[in-house]
Amino acid sequence: MKEIALNILDIVENSVSAGSRNIWITIRESERENEIVVSVGDDGPGIPADILQNVADPFITSRTTRKVGLGLPLLKYHAEAAGGYVEVESHTGKGTFVKAVFVKNHLDRQPLGDITGTLKVICRIDNVDFFFSYTTDKGDFNLSSAEVRTYLGVQSLNNQALLRGIGDMVRNNLEEISAEGADLSRNDG
Amino acid sequence: MTKVKTLADLKKMRDQMQQGLSIREKADDPDSRVRVKVAMATCGIASGAKQIMEFFAEQLDRRNIDGIVVQTGCMGYCYAEPTVEVTIPGQDPVVFGYVDEKKADEIIEKYIKTGELVDGIIPVNYETIDSKE
Fold this sequence. Notes:
The complex is a heterodimer. By secondary structure, chain A is α+β, with helices and mostly antiparallel strands. Helices cover about 35% and strands about 25% of the residues of chain A. Chain A has a six-stranded mixed beta sheet with strand order 3-4-2-1-5-6. In chain A, helix 1 packs antiparallel against helix 3 and helix 1 runs parallel beside helix 4. By secondary structure, chain B is an alpha+beta fold. Helix content of chain B is about 45%, strand content about 15%. Chain B contains five helices and four strands. In chain B, strands 2-1-3-4 form a four-stranded mixed beta sheet, with helices on one face. The longest helix of chain B is centred in the first third of the chain and has 20 residues. Chain B starts with 6 loop residues before the first helix and ends with a helix. The chains are: A alpha+beta, B alpha+beta. Chains A and B meet through helix 1, helix 4, helix 5 and helix 6 of A and helix 1, helix 2, helix 3 and strand 2 of B.
């Protein structure tokens, strides 16, 4: 994984395949506290206690298509490489909460990367509502997929013209509160 | 066009394009559309599946192909990520491996537009751990 945005996407995909209906994604970037805190919470079935104990072990996975599970171990690796840590809390039947903390100015911290692109991918998933919140010292930006659907009166956001608009909206808002979050170095239109 | 910053801007943008959108939405029968499934598990994401998904979605739209791009979990072909499953209406799905933008372009131009098969297909008899057990 080259970017924090990709790690977020990966963790969210886990929540989606676990059958969650609601997913909360928060990013808190603080110059003052010199940290970036990313969290993904869901209302899925939770991680069974025996797996939760070994959740950072790459050879423990609940899947059967292959015998390794690298999502959380990679996130943990990247967070720890940047002077941070990962916490996983899970309650069977209630949901799972993953939090990763990165030291912002750490030399080995990954760039935040293409948060906008990650959100566009997540928006394509129907049947799941997600709530996104990005907070910095300058302000915050919030987006709820259910709210967007209701406001526009559409069932699905999986429409390229619409997603282009959503992407612009996210980037234009992030631009005001975080140069890194808006990923201004990227120019993919 | 004005900058999209709020939901109201987004709605305005959508209303402006309503013409184009409504034609699309009428063809809502999923069986009549080309389906592109991008494997989006850790292996796929680490190999660039996100860009490939965006590429397919953007290019199908630009080339006026009535298709829908969705994501799926790991199909067990981690060695060949990014992998993409393309289903042309009325035909069996075909899985392509090692898809980069160049390959994606070839898949759209040749397989999706004309039905001509291109290199990089993962045969259906490939066995995953799951199917062996």
